């Protein structure tokens, strides 16, 4: 069948799926056909990030420099390169882990006086120790290998309330400037991160990004010494947006959200924060519930007036002066201050937009195009009155594209299970 030339590398993948779709065994269900198509395409075919855009952070970089790098490049995470590793080291030895905004948010939320252990921390009575006292029990301790371990207790709204001057004081402290990114990196038991090999399949990649909750996946050649590509949930949804119009995509993309079982979460389980609650409560909830963002609800809790995502922690650390006038910083104060700051700096950001919403009767294709065009990671589902009743994330969308065959991963995860949540940031 003759078709127009693909308009992008992502669309080229779509045409490749289309070719496989047309010759797939007729007895397969549409879901099984999609699985079969994606199982036949290697990860090496996924459009590559330009080498200059694969951002690495040296292990001796300060936390302040790391926040600036992630923010400037508009990325959620980056691999940490071991500055002590030789140039010809394999990727397993060349990198020590991944730093994410989620880990930075945890660091911010749970600083404590760890001086009793002779590890990272600050003097009693300092701003950092005062925050720790308000947020609950938390300690850093260093293992024999030098990695930092953490323990935490739950936090309250009162604990999360800090004055607007706190963040400026914290970010100007020697403690903040001297904290190294290597101290807050996440890691796996046998390797610095869970990586895909170039020979792995699209099906493996899509399952890891959805069912197994990975937000990004470095791609490596086993035995190689560099990261060949980094595939994110966002890049996969962009690929899907580029496939609009292809028969295989339309057969799936024209289904209503309700037909696909979206949103996945019942309304009463939606993780949210009230506009009057402290902004730190939003980041606490993200960490406790394992979500990447929360809606900021109006006073009666029915409608979302904004969204705070995990990456927005950058504005507490990179622009602390914008909160000085606030005695305490509520979620609404945070949104107002950051929007004003972004407008002054002429910066584009999803925070400047109204909350993006949809309804259960919308088709999945429309949601993909909205998320891709606005460069956001979640869209809120509203009812006929405009009340918020659910959320759909990039992960949710990918999870409805493929399913995991029985015993598919086999021993894939042996030895690469992440360290316990209370062991490594």
Automatic annotation (TrEMBL):
Domain of life per record: Eukaryota
SUPFAM superfamilies (UniProt xref): CBS-domain pair
A family per Pfam: CBS
InterPro entries: AMPK_gamma/SDS23_families, CBS_dom, CBS_dom_sf
Protein name in UniProt: CBS domain-containing protein
Domain CBS: from-to ranges: 265-324, 348-409
Keywords, in A-Z order: CBS domain, Repeat
Organism: Triticum aestivum
Key word Disulfide bond present: no
Database matches in CDD domains: CBS_pair_SF
